[in-house]
């Protein structure tokens, strides 16, 4: 089976729809490593789109939980808190309940899905080899798909590798894989980042797509989201 892998959508409907349009005839199911909402101007719309996806395997991210009062947002920076507070106000009851019911960790036969790390699914960032290696003992499958950092990379054979555009990997040993962010990339590339996983071949491909950033920014301006959150979409950081 082929899976479309997305993460950190963050209320960016333009980016999400661009990615799903590309994936529609290429995959049979979807994996999402959390954070459908937060930062962006379309939280309800993004949740509703994700709810329609066939066979979606989805976990909660820290912004998802923060927006529904299930996680303290005091640790977030002021811009993130402002966006979370706004998101919480506009989420409708159905979407709020959907986010509240998400699991923080899902383990399938061949892969595990979390937002942050297997050890600490909604908080920990996996960005260095020491932390990555420690987390290998906290999942039992060959692969673990993560998000949270918004940076495409993977860890296997005791080393971290940054994933380049259209790169294909086929990990031979236990691996942790982050395919970047759909809605707010932070690797200085503003294009939406996502991937395709072929569980029969064990192959993972990272993809990048341009989308209408300006349209998202205009929507953010209309609802008075913080200026830095608007600017960062242009520069991918």
TrEMBL record:
Belongs to the metallophosphoesterase superfamily. YfcE family. GO terms for cellular component: cytoplasm. It comes from Candidatus Desantisbacteria bacterium CG1_02_38_46. It holds the Pfam family Metallophos_2. One of its GO terms (molecular function) is phosphatase activity. Residues 1-198 form the Calcineurin-like phosphoesterase domain. SUPFAM superfamilies: Metallo-dependent phosphatases. This is Calcineurin-like phosphoesterase domain-containing protein.
């Amino acid at each position: 089976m082929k899976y479309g892998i997305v993460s950190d959508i963050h209320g960016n409907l333009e980016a999400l729809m661009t990615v799903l349009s590309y994936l529609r005839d290429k995959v049979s199911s979807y994996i999402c490593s959390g954070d459908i909402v937060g930062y962006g101007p379309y939280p309800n719309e993004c949740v509703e789109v994700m709810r329609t996806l066939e066979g979606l395997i989805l976990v909660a991210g820290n912004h998802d939980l923060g927006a529904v009062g299930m996680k303290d947002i005091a640790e977030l920076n002021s811009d993130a808190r402002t966006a979370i507070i706004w998101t919480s106000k506009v989420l409708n009851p159905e979407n709020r309940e959907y986010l509240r019911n998400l699991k923080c960790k899902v383990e399938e036969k061949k892969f595990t899905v979390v937002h942050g790390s297997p050890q600490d699914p909604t908080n920990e960032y996996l960005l260095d080899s020491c932390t990555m290696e420690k987390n290998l003992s906290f999942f039992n499958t060959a692969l673990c798909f993560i998000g949270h950092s918004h940076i495409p990379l993977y860890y296997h054979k005791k080393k971290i590798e940054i994933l380049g555009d259209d790169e294909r990997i086929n990990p031979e040993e236990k691996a942790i894989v982050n395919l970047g962010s759909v809605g707010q990339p932070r690797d200085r590339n503003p294009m939406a980042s996502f991937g395709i996983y072929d569980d029969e071949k064990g192959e993972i491909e990272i993809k990048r797509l341009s989308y209408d950033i300006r349209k998202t920014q205009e929507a953010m301006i209309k609802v008075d989201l913080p200026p830095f959150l608007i600017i960062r979409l242009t520069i991918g950081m």
